[in-house]
Specification:
The structure holds two protein chains of two kinds. Chain A has seven helices and 14 strands. By secondary structure, chain A is of the alpha+beta class. Chain A has a five-stranded mixed beta sheet with strand order 2-1-5-3-4, with helices on both faces. In chain A, helix 2 packs across helix 3. Helices cover 42% and strands 14% of the residues of chain B. Chain B contains 18 helices and twelve strands. The longest helix of chain B has 26 residues. The chains are: A alpha+beta, B alpha/beta. Chains A and B meet through helix 2 of A and helix 15, helix 16 and helix 17 of B.
Chain lengths: 327, 445
């Protein structure tokens, strides 16, 4: 099936969604997604950040779709023409969605552990406005402990339902859902019942914001001061392939490996996540690929020397003198 | 006197019992359909009748039925949407309360046409007493052999159940209704797949409004072509209108589609004019979610033609100068009504009823309510009107289900037609009696 997104054509198999097709083309056309998660069935469609305009439904039926559609849940048709970043209406609508997501978000990034790897931060920088138009009191909740290792900070939640789907699909029994309605909706474990199984920790990784955080890592370190390396160990519960975040020689936390779209490659068990916090527990493979725009890569040493040389060259070309050599 | 097909017997004493209902020609459509017609013939009659969904969207019922997937060996369901929660609409309640057998008769006939062996009547939680009336009527129908195995010896078996909802407006949205019926949280599903392909428990399902299903009986009795002669153009048949607000005779009226709006409001047969001899200010023509229209535009279209009670005539001019027939919740407001206050009431309702799945509706409805609250408190600024307009435009069309639109349209229409009133309230810095804002509205061309 041929689909054109922002003027770029791609051939994809039947059943591919617009979002997946756009990701196959590349980040230049892929819409942002806050709630969709490839690994979780029935996820997506809630946050509305990935909306796109379909200007031609298919070759057989070329009428445009009247409303913007959620690209993560709309399958492509042969000859479909989609507009994402080139459509001003869509950019405006997305700006609106980001504003809605942020009006009840506490914006406590300076004390939030997710800062630096938060999808909402990225989304806000890319599509949000600099000032808020919301002048009312923001929604607040008490913090809840989900088990002894996970902290639920509901105030930061954007209700993407990812953790609910995770609890439903990869853990044994679901004790974790949404209660109440509308903007009073709340992720709950039904009167603070504990999620007690070996894969519960993955809800931390799927959370796009800082609503679910690892209590063994909370307030320990800012992520951009840590160095992520891919590592593995022999584990009989999960694949054992993880990302280990180092501060010097110390393992400050362990997460699952994430791909280019910030989605977990393989879910890991709680034992790997919480119980192996020594460098000697792990076989380190090498530095993790981190996008160069990410704040985490600021502390990433892989190409640092090369980068220094390049900066020097540029400065020389522009006629600057290095700071320490200035008279 | 207009023709009445649905509630013509409503004043007969004891019409809620099977005996009296039968004596007044009840269950004739079941007899006719099961004995003399094939299921496809019944569907054809409904198609010919031009019947359109009475729940609000006005989608042709025959077409909806023909979309129903019919794979071999898979159960099909008919679900009756009796979750009537739109503010200003109470026609289904009246029909079920007064003539419960009319709905059951329609359920049997429609299920026969669709080949559904099981049907459900999903009643909103607040109508628990209506559910009891329905259950009693269903028990009577079972006892008399109108429901159950082998109805009238035709070999058609049908079971009908009543399910009471939890009292959520969102469960009136068909996919949320199905989720709720399955015992889950009533969140709308993402379409496609449509219920006609994968509905209740993944099986093909038709969801119809109470009035739509009840209207199938007269269609089968009199024939689709005869039914289509009532009404104008594509708006055929009769429609129940729940008239409320500042009128002399509020209540449920059955009208022939095509009745002039002016006649409906001012004639003694229907609403009987505005109470206390006041002037009319505005009308919400089809339940709280459709755009509000000022007097000049509800009586006459922007082109100057008289407005009729039809799907097309009310929608004439789009949303700039028109509205929708919707579910038939006809709310009339007199000159003393404050549109700002009215809009606050509506918006508070949508904020309370938003399911919380998608962000524009979850956050936007609450935001709009808070801004409107500022108007009532006298702390609003003139710029808040523009902000409201901007918020509603960012909700509309960006959500999974139509609740986002239902929340956005009233705000848009109120600002479009009564902007001056909002500005005046904002400037006054206190909430004042707004009866003197009854200025004549000029169509913005």
């Amino acid at each position: 099936m041929k689909v054109t997104i922002d003027g770029i054509e791609i051939d994809v198999p039947k059943g591919t969604t617009i979002l997946q097709a756009a990701r196959l083309i590349g980040p230049q056309v892929a819409p942002p997604a806050m709630c969709y998660y490839t690994k979780l069935k029935t996820s997506g469609g809630y946050c509305r950040t990935c909306i796109v305009k379909v200007t031609q439904g298919s070759t057989a039926n070329p009428t445009p779709m009247p409303k913007p559609v959620a690209s993560c849940r709309t399958e492509v048709m042969d000859g479909m023409v989609v507009e994402n970043f080139i459509n001003k209406e869509i950019l405006e609508a997305r700006k609106g969605v980001v504003e809605f997501l942020l009006i009840n978000h506490p914006l406590d990034c300076p004390i939030c552990d997710q800062a630096g790897e938060c999808k909402l931060q990225d989304l806000g920088y890319e599509n949000g406005s600099a000032k808020t138009r919301y002048e009312f009191k923001r929604r607040e909740y008490e913090m809840i402990d989900i088990g002894d290792k996970i902290k639920l900070h509901m105030t930061r939640c954007i209700l993407c339902y990812r953790c609910v789907k995770t609890a439903e699909q990869i853990t044994d029994k679901r004790l974790h859902g949404v209660v109440h309605r509308g903007d009073a909706s709340e992720i709950s474990t039904y009167i603070e019942q504990v999620i007690d199984n070996d894969f519960s920790g993955n809800v931390i990784d799927v959370c796009p914001v800082g609503a679910l955080t690892d209590k063994t890592f909370r307030f320990k370190q800012r992520v951009w001061f840590t160095k992520p390396v891919d590592a593995h160990r022999k584990c009989d519960k999960c694949c054992g392939k993880t990302r280990v975040w180092l501060k010097g020689e110390e393992v400050v936390r362990v997460t699952a490996r994430k791909d280019q779209w910030d989605e977990v490659e393989e879910f890991i068990c709680n034992s790997c996540r919480y119980d192996h916090k020594k460098t000697s527990d792990w076989v380190i493979e090498g530095p993790s690929p981190i996008h160069r725009n990410s704040v985490i890569s600021q502390n990433h040493y892989q190409h640092l020397n090369e980068l220094k040389v390049q900066v020097m060259k540029q400065q020389k070309a522009l006629g600057f003198m290095p700071i320490d050599k200035k008279p | 006197m207009g023709k009445k097909l649905l509630i013509h017997n409503d004043k007969v004493p004891g019409i809620e019992t099977l005996e009296v209902y039968r004596a007044h020609g009840g269950y004739a459509s079941v007899e006719k359909a099961l004995k003399t017609m094939t299921p496809d013939q019944v569907t054809d009659e409904v198609k010919k009748s031009g019947l359109r969904g009475r729940g609000g969207a006005g989608f042709p019922t025959g077409l909806k039925w023909s979309f129903l997937a019919k794979p071999e060996g898979v159960a099909r369901y008919l679900v009756c949407n009796a979750d009537e929660s739109e503010p200003g609409t109470f026609k289904d309640r009246y029909l079920m309360e007064v003539i419960p057998h009319a709905l059951i008769e329609g359920m049997i006939t429609s299920s026969y046409a669709l080949g559904a062996k099981t049907s459900y009547i999903y009643i909103r939680g607040e109508y628990f007493y209506v559910a009891r009336i329905m259950e009693k009527a269903i028990a009577e129908a079972y006892a008399a052999g109108w429901l159950g195995a082998n109805i009238l010896g035709s070999g058609f078996t049908h079971d009908c159940y009543v399910q009471v909802g939890g009292g959520a407006y969102i469960c009136g949205e068909e996919t949320a209704l199905l989720e709720s019926l399955e015992g889950k949280r009533g969140n709308p599903r993402i379409k496609p797949p449509f219920p006609a392909v994968a509905g209740l428990w993944g099986c093909p399902t038709v969801v119809n409004n109470v009035e739509t299903i009840a209207a199938v009986c007269p269609i089968v009795n009199m024939g689709g072509e005869e039914y289509a002669k009532i009404g104008i153009g594509k708006s055929t048949g009769t429609k129940l209108i729940s008239a409320s607000g500042h009128i002399n005779k509020p209540g449920v009226y059955e009208i022939e589609l095509g009745l002039p709006v002016e006649e409906f409001i001012y004639s003694e047969e229907y609403c009987g004019g505005i109470r206390n001899g006041k002037k009319m200010k505005a009308v919400v023509a089809g339940g709280s979610s459709v755009p509000i229209l000022p007097t000049e535009l509800i009586l006459k279209t922007a082109k100057g033609e008289p407005r009729l009670m039809t799907y097309e005539s009310l929608a004439d001019g789009g949303f700039v100068t028109g509205t929708m027939l919707g579910s038939g919740g006809f709310i009339v407001m007199d000159e003393d009504t404050s549109i700002v206050k009215n809009l606050f009431t509506f918006t508070r309702f949508y904020h309370h009823e938003s399911c919380g799945q998608c962000s524009p509706c979850r956050e936007g409805t609450g935001w709009m309510e808070k801004i409107l609250k500022k108007f009532l408190n006298g702390t609003a600024n003139e710029s808040d009107v523009d902000l409201l307009w901007d918020i509603q435009s960012k909700i509309e069309g960006k959500t999974i289900c139509p609740l986002g639109e239902a929340a956005a349209w009233p705000v848009a229409a109120a600002i479009r037609h009564f902007k001056q009133e909002f500005l005046d309230v904002a400037r006054s810095k206190k909430f004042v009696d707004v009866s003197h804002y009854n200025r004549l509205y000029k169509v913005n061309t």
